[in-house]
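Standup notes
- HV: blocked on the assembly model, inputs below
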Amino acid sequence: MTAKLLDGSAQAIAAAVKTGVVSALEIAQSTLKRIESHNRALGAFTDVTAGRALAKAAEIDAARARGKSLGPLAGAPFAVKNLFDIEGLSTRAGSKINRDRAPAKTDATIVARLEAAGGVLMGALNMGEFAYDFTGENAHDGPSRNPHDLEHMSGGSSGGSGAAVAGGLVPIALGSDTNGSIRVPSSLCGLFGLKPTYGRLSRAGAFPFVASFDHVGPLARSAGDLALAYDAMLGRDDGDPAQADMAATLASPTLDDGVTGLRIARLGGYFAHSGEASAFAAVDRVARALKADRIVELARADVARSSAYLITMVEGAALHLERLRTRVGDFDPDTRDRLIAGAMLPGAWAAQAQKFRRRFRAEALALFRDVDILLAPATPCRAPKIGQRTFTLDGREMLVRPNLGLFTQPLSFIGLPVVVAPVWTDGEKLPIGVQIVTAPWREDLALRVASALERAGVVRAPVATLA
Amino acid sequence: MDAVAPLLGLTLTPESRAQTALHLSIAAQQAEKLFSIALDDAEEPAPVFTA
């Protein structure tokens, strides 16, 4: 019975813990056994916080025994990308260099909020070095692997988050998304992933990459769990100066409201090229299910992508310049050379890109006067093989590492909220995701659409079968 | 590259040089696309500081 619960949702685990069908301690112990059995193959966890998890689970059981009311995530295991501060651990952010940092004194804000809702932290997850990656590969810790085919990439940079959830080690994981690092692994591992609006969730205690674009959010195996985790993490936090002063709109209460009345269109132009047929077929299937036959254009998305690319290079290099000077030999070479190049770019390029960003945002907001939901592919292809350096899109050979995010990057450039929903095709071993995009601050709508698609059986996120 | 690296206090190894050059050329392609758009002098950049 515990195994079935671990393959199910966090919501179901919390319900079972609250009603005493299972104890939080049993869930935590079984989760630790799963991690022990499968983590070597998946490369998902870099630190397992077993003692903390068992203590927290025992605390939840004791609270229940005393008749206390339990939180919405009571006893549900979760894990976090290793750029989030966890008290007592050095926040490595996928790097060798950061292992020399002093252990964190407190948890990152959203880690603490999930625990306050009853979640049980199981540990820290593998990621691309300093989050500059879409593959899930890591020169120091080894790659996180796609649970649906271990020879293939998990996607990154939140690769361990994708591997842990799709592999059934935890039902919910936290990731970060600067240019697509939640959405790419969600697509490649077949998960629901939420990149909220820029400024929505607190980034306090998350190691930064590109302050202009850094977002944090959850990955899960159901839209319901995504909404539950998102709701638990909402709320003002003075620790993140970029957080907007917006009212917290819960997503769970309206999750089952359906799509009637929503104006839904698919993105054409840039978002209908430079991908394999599978990427567009997934969007077709979702659009058909939603009866969305309208196609709209987000003009100059290619320039948006170029601008995001340049700002990322420049801000990323500025963040790491001192480390490049003093510890260049300790970087992953793939990260190092992109950062060095970024340090050499003219400042005028980044300044112009920030000016274009405001223009592009205005054009996108105008589009949302006539439409509520936009659909787009999440990745240009299913998961490439681990170690694959290039792929060919529209007849052009390109590097895999920066280009897996070519459909995600223009959207995070202007901070739009996006839910990725996973599509499976009969006979295929690997899934691919579709982006459900809304106007700023309407995460609730994107989650509603994902939930409707899930109930209709159009999208789903099964646990992988592992040997 | 050779002029800017010492200015930044960076050392380029032979291994790093070729890849850095590749990434600079990719960035230059992106910049070319960006500068193909005419932006008015008065247009504000996205991050606006509030005192």
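- HV (later): unblocked. The radius of gyration of chain B is 16 Å. Chain B touches chain A through 33 residues (CB under 8 Å).
- Next: hand off to the docking folks.
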